[in-house]
Amino acid sequence: MTHAVSPAREPAAASPSATPTLYGGSGTRRITIRDLSLAKERGEKWPMLTAYDAMTASVFDEAGIPVILVGDSMGNCHLGYDTTVPVTMDQMTMLSAAVVRGTSRALVIGDMPFGSYQEGAVQALRSATRLVKEAGVGAVKLEGGERSLAQTELIVQAGIPVMSHLGLTPQSVNAMGYRVQGRSDEAAHQLLRDAKAAQDAGAFAVVLELVPAELAAEVTRSLHIPTVGIGAGAECDAQVLVWTDMMGLTGGKMPKFVKQYANLRQTMNDAAKAFAEDVVGGAFPQAEHAFH
Ligand SMILES: Nc1nc(=O)c2c([nH]1)NC[C@@H]1CN(c3ccc(C(=O)N[C@@H](CCC(=O)O)C(=O)O)cc3)CN21
Ligand SMILES: CC(C)C(=O)C(=O)O
């Protein structure tokens, strides 16, 4: 093994003043769930993005995004399906492996696709184990609090970190649609019970999707593990967006919670047309692009 960092720098890295921050820190080793836990203690917020391929993941890793989710939103955003429901373990394993290969610092979380854990704890552990062994992910995510309690417990006991996903759970789209969750008193209490159940089962973090901001804030205050919001207001410990949405690549009407940071769809359309016009008009290739 070769060490890029000289031994003289190691004591400094261990001193309190050099506490690594999740975003903007200088560390180069992989982020761990312990780093996320310490960030909550410090009150430090962190960003998470999805990725479905090695190149995109390497861009986010280089930009310092500490946590990358290989979401089953790959169904919509990478594979052309209408929902996340058709996504398979083979697809999830292949694209998670690509994201792991494209990164060196980010914690990579592999989503458990619909049908890969609903049968019970043993099936869930088998699926999670496959994502760890074949793709090399550092953690997995699954939907449901109380209803996925046995699955979460067994996977965590096996030594695989679990992120729980509550509120709008897209794998249940056929039962619940894409509506804001937890609006009634009863639903709000259920969400709090689900969050506590996930924490008690050993989950290291909880995604809160499409939940009223006040309720997400209450969940965030009542848990010692971090909450990751998407359409859940500003009080969550972390925020996640689907990368093709926030980069303006997805196209179509965006959910209200999306902020667009780029317009890749326009950029790529312009570039494709410029290339086409050059080819049709004979402006590409020039001599410098050819071999003689
Ligand atoms: N491209 C993409 N982005 C996502 O965020 C995403 C996916 N795909 N696929 C899986 C789920 C599905 N998601 C969705 C899909 C639609 C809405 C939506 O239309 N929401 C309405 C709110 C409706 C209400 O008020 O109850 C909105 O206007 O935001 C929200 C989340 C989030 N996830
Ligand atoms: C939106 C995030 C949380 C997700 O579950 C996904 O990308 O599949």
From TrEMBL:
Positions bound to 3-methyl-2-oxobutanoate: 72-73, 111, 141
Cofactor descriptive note: Binds 1 Mg(2+) ion per subunit.
Catalytic activity: (6R)-5,10-methylene-5,6,7,8-tetrahydrofolate + 3-methyl-2-oxobutanoate + H2O = 2-dehydropantoate + (6S)-5,6,7,8-tetrahydrofolate
Pathway: Cofactor biosynthesis; (R)-pantothenate biosynthesis; (R)-pantoate from 3-methyl-2-oxobutanoate: step 1/2
EC nos: 2.1.2.11
Sequence positions that bind Mg(2+): 72, 111, 143
Superkingdom as given in the UniProt entry: Bacteria
Chain positions covered by the region annotation Disordered: 1-25
Cofactor: Mg(2+)
Record bears the keyword Transmembrane helix: no
GO terms for biological process, alphabetical: methylation; pantothenate biosynthetic process
Assembly and interaction partners: Homodecamer; pentamer of dimers.
Protein name: 3-methyl-2-oxobutanoate hydroxymethyltransferase
